[in-house]
Automatic annotation (TrEMBL):
GO terms for molecular function: ABC-type oligopeptide transporter activity; ATP binding; ATP hydrolysis activity. GO terms for cellular component: plasma membrane. It is found in: Cell membrane. It comes from Tumidithrix elongata BACA0141. The keyword Lipoprotein does not apply. The lineage of its organism: Bacteria, Bacillati, Cyanobacteriota, Cyanophyceae, Pseudanabaenales. Residues 369-603 form the ABC transporter domain. PROSITE patterns: ABC_TM1F, ABC_TRANSPORTER_1, ABC_TRANSPORTER_2. Residues 34-325 form the ABC transmembrane type-1 domain. The chain crosses the membrane at residues 168-194, 259-284. Its main location: membrane. This is ABC transporter ATP-binding protein. It comes from the Bacteria.
Length: 609
């Protein structure tokens, strides 16, 4: 654990560009190809000023031109040769432009795809506590906006950096070759430009990190509000929520404005520096040409090259802006990828179940669960479960009851290793569940939660979720057992009806019956019913209870309930209070004890009477 944390800290201290290169090392060949095409494209793109200079040289010098010295004396032939060379250069420039555009864009798409999949896959491996401390909107901002920001830079910004660098090197070399005495003055601004770029970069980095943080908070608030739109409408708090979004959006706008104030100053300063070089070429080069120490053609080339140098450098500010945004996003995405996984899968496998029927489990897993002095506490809170020991016999139905906050639902999450216990041991068929592969452990448990989650899709798809190869007959059979078939048949498109996001088109009772059908279809050796009938009416509850007798046969069943009437026939009832097991026995025994269970039972009878 400590090694993972230190490793994460070390990676986070590295420059984001280095971290990105390390992440995308398997694309090194593609990066090399794209880089080569970008450089070659810029080389051929800078050739026209040389061709213009050669043409001026032909017109002025005629048979004494540079081309004439190569053996082509006739002037029309010299111009024809220049035209043919121009055609080749233009063709090669176009070819390499197509090549680098395609290569860089494909690279951007590939890295974007890999990062999103890796980040999402890593998120799925993280424990529930991680999600409780972060907003869904903030995580969505990383998976979507931050990764897209990086893709935008790779799509065009990386090529721009390479081409600006190539331009400076080639034009600088040409200046020193054509007129060494003038080149020094022309190139003099370059170190100041590079120094200024680095200085701007270091000052922009923290500003764009703040921008990414603010947009994450804004997305988190938007996501939260859209999820709670029904509550917002019912409490008529639209104006209040609009004001909260306005505040977050304004903070994002202000952080962007802070970054823009600096980034916008970059281009004018670059222009001033480049203008100094242009004046040096225009004036000193002209003096040299008039004095006969520099040819007219060479002077023309230098003037044109200075212009070619001017515009790319003015775009450097925009490129730098893209780069800093991308690096801020890169840090956020890679920091997520470097988040250590707290709950690790074990190495032992469980025997596979035969899921051919919903009439009962034929799994080789017996389903005996035992807790040995288990203690668990949520982060920075008092223990919810304290030194708890209890036995859940294989194939039996046991119930866990208690007041809200007594640790009932937490116990279920510990069984599935959604959280990790602080001390003690939980065994399944005598095996410590920490030694089992997480996939095997969770696959042998069917969990029907009181907080039912349905995916946007059809009724059939939601019942078959997790049992994707189930036949239509098995799905219908599971729906009938869960008392869901009749209402499904009455829906507009039956089993093909779209339930909406989180199943919002269905009632709470309908959603819960689909969740029960989903668990029945999975046919697990262990079934957990966490308030599974809390959202259904009394008539439906009675029907489901009758079906549950069939569902729970020969299967280890753990039922958590506030309605004690639903668990009175359990083989054993455990009563919890503040994380401790305080009573246990069958319904009649617990009522006779006149303890906590009896009080709860009498209270519910009084409410029902």
């Amino acid at each position: 654990m400590s090694q993972l944390s230190s490793k994460t800290s070390k990676k986070s201290s590295e420059h984001p560009f280095i971290r990105l290169l390390k992440y995308g090392h398997h694309y090194n060949q593609l990066i090399l190809q794209a880089t080569t095409c970008s450089i070659l494209n810029k080389i051929f793109d800078l050739a026209p000023p040389a061709l213009i200079g050669a043409a001026v040289d032909v017109v002025v010098q005629k048979k004494d031109s540079l081309i004439a010295h190569m053996g082509i004396v006739d002037i029309p032939s010299q111009l024809l040769a220049l035209s043919l060379v121009s055609a080749v250069i233009w063709g090669l420039e176009s070819i390499f432009e197509y090549a680098f555009a395609r290569l860089w864009r494909n690279l951007a798409q590939n890295i974007q795809h890999d990062l999103r999949l890796d980040a999402y896959s890593h998120l799925q491996e993280l424990e529930l506590a991680f999600f409780e401390e972060r907003s869904t909107g903030g995580l969505m901002s990383i998976l979507s906006d931050d990764i897209n920001q990086l893709e935008r830079f790779l799509d065009g910004g990386a090529n721009e950096v390479l081409q600006v660098t190539t331009t400076v090197l080639i034009i600088g070399g040409a200046f020193f070759y054509l007129a060494p005495s003038v080149a020094g003055m022309a190139i003099l601004p370059m170190p100041f430009i590079l120094w200024g770029s680095i200085a701007f970069q270091s000052r922009l980095a923290p500003r764009y990190a703040t921008v990414r943080e603010k947009v994450s908070l804004l997305n988190g608030q938007l996501s939260n509000n859209l999820s709670g739109i029904t509550t917002i409408k019912s409490f008529t708090t639209e104006a209040y929520e609009k004001k909260r979004i306005e505040i977050e959006s304004n903070r994002y706008r202000q952080s962007n404005r802070h970054a823009i104030a600096l980034s916008a100053a970059f281009v004018p300063l670059i222009r001033i520096a480049v203008f100094a070089g242009f004046i040096a070429i225009l004036y000193l080069g002209g003096i040299e040409t008039v004095a006969g120490r520099l040819s007219v053609g060479a002077y023309s080339v230098m003037v044109f090259l200075t212009q070619r140098l001017l515009w790319p450098l003015t775009r450097l500010g925009e490129t730098l802006d893209q780069y800093q945004r991308a690096m801020a996003s890169t840090n956020r995405v890679l920091d997520l990828l470097d988040t250590p996984i707290e709950i690790h899968s074990g190495h032992l496998t469980l025997p596979q179940s035969d899921l051919s029927s919903t009439n009962g489990t034929s799994s080789k897993i017996r389903g005996e669960i035992e807790l040995h002095d288990v203690t668990f506490a949520y982060k920075d809170r008092h223990p919810v479960v304290k030194e708890l020991s209890l036995l859940i016999p294989a194939g039996k139905t046991i119930a866990i009851v208690g007041a809200t906050g007594s640790g009932k639902s937490t116990l279920v999450k510990l069984l599935m290793r959604l959280y990790e216990i602080q001390s003690g041991k939980i065994t399944l068929d005598g095996i410590d569940i920490r030694e089992l592969q997480l996939k095997d452990l969770r696959s042998c448990i069917g969990w029907v939660s009181q907080d039912v989650f349905l995916f946007h899709g059809s009724v059939l798809e939601n019942i078959a979720y997790g049992s994707f190869d189930a036949s239509a007959d098995r799905i219908v059979e599971a729906a009938k057992i869960a008392e869901a078939h009749d209402f499904i048949e009455q829906l507009p498109q039956g089993y093909d009806t779209i339930v909406g996001e989180r199943g919002q088109k269905l009632s709470g009772g309908q959603r819960q019956r689909l969740a029960i059908a989903r668990a029945v279809l999975r046919n697990p050796p262990i079934l957990i019913l966490d308030e599974a009938t809390s959202a259904v009416d009394n008539e439906t509850e009675a029907a489901i209870q009758k079906s549950l007798e069939r569902i729970t046969a020969n299967r280890t069943t753990i039922a958590i309930a506030h309605r004690l009437s639903t668990i009175r026939n359990a083989d054993r009832i455990y009563v919890m209070e503040r994380g401790h097991l305080v009573e246990q026995g069958q319904h009649e025994e617990l009522v006779a004890q006149q303890g906590i269970y009896a009080d709860l039972w009498n209270l519910q009878i009084g409410q029902l009477s």
